[in-house]
Target: C2H2-type domain-containing protein
Amino acid sequence: MHDAWSNHEVWVYECQNCGGTWDEEFEVRHVADGHGGEAVAYEHDGHSCTTPWTDHVCPDCQRARVRAWPAPWRRRRAVPPTRKGDDLELVFRLRRLHAY
Model:
């Protein structure tokens, strides 16, 4: 008997044409072949589908210029502003915490 398991994944999509974003949920089924390999099948709304990162069309503008990534890596945030204060003070604080 081969090992089989499934997991739930959420993928985030961004249209490169209109800038719209949305996410979709997938059920991912894994089956080990007994020789170190693995077969993976994706389901969306109970129907078999291709991998989440291929063949998507924007629901707003109907263009196929869509980028996809797993949900934990959503859109990159802007770089936070620099911290006000003395860097030397931060170094001493980190040394007291044995973190530097």
